[in-house]
Structures are given as C-alpha cells and as structure tokens.
Amino acid sequence: MVAALWLFMMSLFFYGWWNPIYVGLLLGSIVFNYSIGLSLSREALPRHSQCKYWMLFIGIVSNIGLLAYYKYANFFVENINTSLQLDWQFTTVMLPLGISFFTFTQIAFLVDAYRGEVKESNFIYYGLFVTYFPHLLAGPVLHHKEMIPQFTLQASYQVDWRNISVGTTIFTMGLFKKVWLADSIAPYANPVFTIAANGGTLTFLEAWGGALAYTFQLYFDFSGYSDMAIGLSRLFGVRLPLNFNSPYKAVNIIDFWRRWHMTLSRFLRDYLYFSLGGNRKGVALRYLNLIVTMVLGGLWHGAGWTFVVWGLLHGVFLVINHAWHQMRKALGHNIEQFTIVGRFTGIALTFFVVVIGWVFFRANSFDAAFSMLEGMFGLNGVILPSSWYGLPHWRVTALLEDFGTQYGVLSAYENLDNAWYWIVALWICVWVAPNTQQIMAAYNPALEKIIHPARYFLFKESRAFALLVGGVLGVSLLSMRRVSEFLYFQF
Asked: In the chain, where are the structural domains located?
C-alpha cells in the first residue's frame, strides 16, 4: 500500500511538472468520480433504481462538461459568433494535459460501477489507476479491471531484473521510433501543409509527398509513444493493454480500427456504440450508430470541423466495409479467407483511404485540406524535379511528357529525393517489418497474448542484444537536440 501511494504521488508530481495548477483539477476529478463510483457500486441499491440512474447521469454529464469546457469552449464560441454574426469574447482556455484520457477512463469506471462490475473500493489504487504516469498524457485508455488488480499485487513493487530488461528494450524501441523516424520524416510533411494552409498550389508529387510523410510521421510518433508507455510501465512489473498493432497492414477499415488506437476503439465500441443500440435494432440503425460513434470519435481528437469530417469519413468507410461483408456472406463467401492478390488489394485500398482521411486530420482548415486533395488527384498538374529528367528510358520520359508531365522546381522541397527515400523506406518498414510486440513476444510485453510472433528477429536476453539496445538508447538520447512533442499529446 505504501508503494502504491508513493507511485500515486509521483504520478501527480509528474503531471504537475508541466503546470502545477492543473494538479488540483486532476485530484478534484479523481475524488468526484471515486465518490460517485463508490455510491454506484453499493449492493444495497438495485441496479436499475432511479437513484443509481441519476448518479450515473450526473457523473457522466459532469465529466463531459469538464471536457467540453476545456477542450471545446473556444470552438463553440467561434462557431456561434460566425453563425449568428456575434462578437462574444471568451478567454482562451489552456487545455490540461491528458484530460481526454483521464476523462474517458473515469467515465468507463462509472458505467461499470453502475453495471455492478466494480469490486475494488480502495482510493489509493483508484487514484493510481487514473494518474498512472506512463498512460496519463496520451493513453492508452485504461480499464479498471485490467489495472487495479495489478496494483494490488506485491510483486508489482519488487525489483525484477527481467522486467527492467524487457521494459528498457521496449522503451528504447519507442524512443528510436520517435526521435529517428517520426521526427526525421516530419520536415517533409510540415512545409507542404503550410503551403496548403497559406493558399498555395501543390502539384501531384508535392501533395502526395506531404500526405505520405505525415502518414508515416503520425504512425511512428504514436507507435513510439505506445511502446514507451508499455516499456515504462513494464519497469514496474505492470502490463498495459496494447494500443497499436501495425495498423497499416490492415486488410480493411474494420481491421484498421482493431489495430489503431485500440483502447480508444474499445471504449467507443463498449460505451458509446453499444449504448446507442449497436447492431441490435436493424441494419439502418446499426450503420447510423457506426457513423455517430466515429463522428464523436473524430471530435474527441480535436475541436475542429476537420476532425468531425475525418470521423465522418471513417464512419462511412466502416459502413461500406460492413455492407460489403454482408453482401459477400449472402453470396456464400468466407470473408476471413484472402488470396494473396486479395490481401494485397485490401491492404493497398485501406491504406489509400486512410491517407485521404489523414489529410483532413492534419489540415487546419477545409481550404487547406481541399488544396492538398486537388494536388493529390492531379488537378494542379504533375511536375518532376529537373534532376530527374532523363533518368528513366527515353520512351518512358516521352510517355510522361505526352501525359502532361513537366520538369521544374518544386517549391515545397529543397531536396525531393531525400523525402522520397524516407517515404519509401518507412513504407517498406510498416508493411514488412515485425512490430515491437512481435519482436518481444517471448516476454509477454502487454496484457494481450501475441498471436503472431516475429520469425526472424525475436528478442532474447543475451549480451549481444544488451549491447544493441544500449547503443540504440544512447544514440537516441544524444539525438534529442530539440523539444519535439508527441502528436497525440495535442489530443
């Protein structure tokens, strides 16, 4: 208990290092939700009593209200002013770190308490569950049934050199992804989106270069953070749930959402989609529920209409995917089996629509997003660098020119070759290389069982791996020359 209290206090200290004033907000949220949850879990109250219902209602509304004030107040005021031509003034609210994550975590706790699924009543364990520092800033969205039982184990507070070895290795992989891969591809994404935001014109290669660069920046940024969270937690002998599982290998958009931000997908499914009725009230309402869930999931990521459209796109993609599966089932097809061509086609098509969606996710306005899309679909022409002229066979060069391809200067890039070297290398990596949990499969890196371990690069405790991990960690730490925030830190 003393060790749990110490870790709880250190997690609060970690949170307060950014801005101490919000420690009070976090503690207030914890005390409020713990009190409501404790009342809801009392067996003396029947599950469907009006008292329980109203306590749950007050708890959820209070959490959503807190989140809405800090995350969406400015967004709402701006839209009201625009729609009604008003001039309301509202003080800009600074977004508390991790508020989206600790709010959703506690809403899940309240709902489970209402359902009679909460058994633990110790405040210290609950406070540690909410504030546990590896997940606090950018996830994963934790579930009390997974975490609190681990915090009660004495073994979680004893030094275990295997946990230290495995945790350090996973953390090192995540740090390498962030500082060497995500931060290295970022300079090829940001200038392109800046040109689009400023009303500039982007040609085919520039637009696709920027979109793909951001696609891989976000991938390795979020994958890196997820690894670092799992690795840090494993140092204490505590396993976190997986939050990232090679999503660009997904064969369809349903599979993508089983692999990308897995704990958020689980929350949206269990506490929003099912609460709306899920698939229990007919096909039409099922599809409507999917779209509503994804739109709200998009809005959760940020206070902007581009996030809403991103969520709407994914909702529509999911509806199309489910409708396609239903049609194939009606024809007697096995939707779980894929030919090699079918699997490759599915992965390529899924990747394409995901990239289109990321354009809205990254762009700061609709004008910027449509400017990117115009370039990506070739509406502004195709210009190749002058240095590329004559590189392919002359017949290929002539054919490209017949289709309107020109050679000249690309304003978005000083060195287009380097950008595409990075894009191709990272593209191969995400489609071919095993992920962290597959490499570490022998040591059960997370709560879930790893079904497909790596075949050719499986981590083993040995001197060679120790030297490799130590070298990568040292190089990664020395490469942190500037402050570079995680992208999901913003959401």
From this structure: 2-157, 161-251+338-490
Q: CA nearest 203: which of 351, 408, 396, 400?
A: 408
Give the DSSP letter string of 192-249. HHHHHHTT----HHHHHHHHHHHHHHHHHHHHHHHHHHHHHHHHTT-PPPP-B--GGG
User: What does the DSSP assignment read for 255-291?
Assistant: HHHTTBSHHHHHHHIIIIIHHHTTTTT-HHHHHHHHH
Average pLDDT rounded to a whole number, residues 435-448: 93
Report which of 324, 389, 377, 382 is spatially closest to residue 352, judged by C-alpha positions. 377
The pairing of strands 406-408 and 383-385 is parallel
Q: Report, as residue numbers or ranges, the catalytic residues.
A: 301
pTM above 0.90, yes or no: yes
Work out the average pLDDT over 276-298.
93
**126-132-138 Cα angle (round to 5):** 125
- Do 314 and 253 meet the contact criterion of CB atoms below 8 Å apart? yes
| C-alpha 51 chain-centroid distance | 36
pLDDT tens-place string over residues 447-460 = 998 888 887 888 88
Task: Work out the pLDDT band at 483, boundaries 50, 70, 90.
Answer: low
